[in-house]
Structure formats: C-alpha cells, structure tokens
Amino acid sequence: MTDRVIPIRLMGSMPASAPRPVAPPPLALYVHVPWCVRKCPYCDFNSHPQRGPLPEGPFLAALIAALEAALPDIWGRRVVSLFIGGGTPSLLSPQAVDGLLAAVRARLSCAPGMEITLEANPGTVEAARFAGFRAAGVNRLSLGVQSFADGQLRALGRIHDGDGARRALAIARKVFDRVNVDLMYALPGQTPELALADVETALAFDPTHLSCYELTIEPNTAFAHQPPALPDEDCAADIHDAIESRLLAAGWEHYEVSAYARPGHACTHNLNYWRFGDYLGIGPGAHSKLTMPDGIRRALRHPHPDAYLSRAGKSDFLQSQHRVPAEDLPVEFMLNALRLADGFEFELFEARTGLPFATLQSDLEGFAAQGLITLNEGRVRPTARGFRLANTMLAALLDRRHQQP
Ligand code: SF4
Q: What is the pTM of this model?
C-alpha cells in the first residue's frame, strides 16, 4: 500500500458519442516496478515476489522501448511529474534509476524542477540506496511505513519492524527535502490512541506529506481468505477523526480523502490524477489515460512481468485500450475530483471532458440536497460531511451509473 494513486475509472463500454475536442490537460508519467520481496496479505496491487536478482537490464530496455512506442501519442507535450511506483521500486539499484531518468529526459520535455517521486520500503538494504536515488534526480521519496508498531507490522506481513521504519525515515529526511509517509489505520486491535502513536512518531521525523489509508479487505488477497478482526465502523471513524484533528492542529492540510500535506507540499502527481489530467503509464500493468483528437483513450499494459519482458523485442506492451464513451466521462471525472477537499471548478469539468457542466446537474443537485456538496461561485465543493462521506458519495455515483441503461 503506497501513496501511489490508482486513478478511478469505469470499465466496460457504453454507446459512444463524441464529446467536443478538448485541449490536452497536464501530462504525468508513471513507471511501474512490479517486484516486491514478498507479497503482503492485504495487497491487491500488481506486485510479484522477487525471485533471484532483478532483471534490471532487460527491464530498463523494455521501459525505454515502451516509452518510445508511446511517443507519437504525446508528441510535443511537456511532462509535469514522474512517479516510480510499484511493487517496490527501491529494489532497483540507483544506477538503474539513473538510467531510467536519463532515458526519460532524453525523450521527453520535462517541466523544470518537476516532481520525481520514488516509492521505497523501509528495508535497510533499500535505505542505504536513498542517496543514490537522490543523486540520480529523484526529489521526493514515498516511504511505505504503514505502522511503527512491531505487532501491527507482523500482522500486516511487512518485512520491516518499527526500528527499521524509524531508521529508514531518518535517512530519508537527511537525503530528501520532500518525504511522504504511508500509514495504515483501522488495523487489527487498533484504538485511536494507538493510531495516534503512529502519527506522532511520523511527525517527529518532520515529513512533508502523510498518506493515511484505512485497511480494507480486498478480494483475491490472503486477507480475503483469512480475514483478521478489524475495528468496527464506528471505531474506524473515530480513528480517522483523531488522525485528522491531530494533523489539522499541527497546521497540516487535509487536501484529499487519504492525503495530508504541510502547506505547499501536496503531491503534484496525484493531484493531476484527481483533477482528471492525463498520464502515460509504462511498466507491467500500468494504466494510461491520454486525451487524443478523437476523445479520451485509456490503455492497460500487460500486467505480468514475464509477459511484459517477453514482448520487449516487439515493443507490443498493450494488453487493451479503448476510447472512453462520452456517457462515462461525467462519473469518471467526479470519482476523481470529488475526492478533493477543494472540489473542482465548473470550468475544469468542461475543459477536461469537452462536455457541458449541465451534464452533472442531476447528480450534483442530489448531493447538494443531502448536504454533501455546495455549488457556489463556479465551484463544486464537498461540505465537511461530504468530505468525510466521500467514499459513500462515490459508491452511490457508481451504483447509479451501473443502473442506467
Ligand atoms: S510492499 Fe506494497 S506493493 Fe509490495 S506486496 Fe506489500 S503492499 Fe503490495
């Protein structure tokens, strides 16, 4: 579990009708590194246990081939952020990361000083590599701590303990100006006090960003077969509120459902997802969303590392792609933008989708009537209650969409 955002989208197809062409939005680049030391029992990400040394050379060659194959789709566009996620990207050597960043810079126009995030796990081997990642050009580290409590880390099947997390965080803060810490809450047996102890420990290292995710049981995970006893809904809500109150009191901003930042340190890359920007994803299982002259196109790369690497010679990495039907765009947009505390401008919806704002009218009026959002001065904004119930609101949106003929 990491602060990599999985952009929310609908699957399946509806009758297509083309929206007005729109100017391409900001473009981000995502690179997926699919390997981990071992699979955590709660994880439904595209991650695969590492067996033997990583095939860094073939992997880098495949990433570069995928990038080159995608160049015609993004010609002339500037990249605003790069996120190397996984899996566990910190298993890569600094030399491999350096090679990747050099290949990106040689082929793409990158915004000056753009945010370059790498996800890392707090194993000591990887922590010793942090200075190398920084020298390669990574300027933001996202550390998958999850908890500092040894018992919780064991229950989560993590490979590090609390001391390892503290050591890695100390090194990360020495090397990087911008550090995100991933924490999970509503863990087995957790109380608000225990969750706050994790937050206090994280704050003691002065990170710039915290991602706080509730532990949920996902299908096709080890926890789905043998679920741990989790705190009930009320207790999970109390933990959430305790974390939020503590961070707001410390001057942090709760800018997205799961994301907190010190002022000026919101994650550029993730904001682009939530504001329905474009992204090119390379690496096994990476998703892309690109605004093309004929509409918005989504693509998925082959997810298994072996299948992905075996296609490198042919530069044929796509498992599927489709144009998003205009009918799906309003819900796709809101599933992302309604997660933001600031909501979104009416104009942003029109600019990103090419559809009139009136398309959202009935859904938004329903939410406004329930006191979940406000519609003022050209902006849709969740109320405090709507922000807390964002996931419920998004689920209702999905349900309604699926019920439509
Ligand atoms: S380290 Fe992260 S990506 Fe890898 S298995 Fe665990 S939760 Fe999943």
A: 0.94
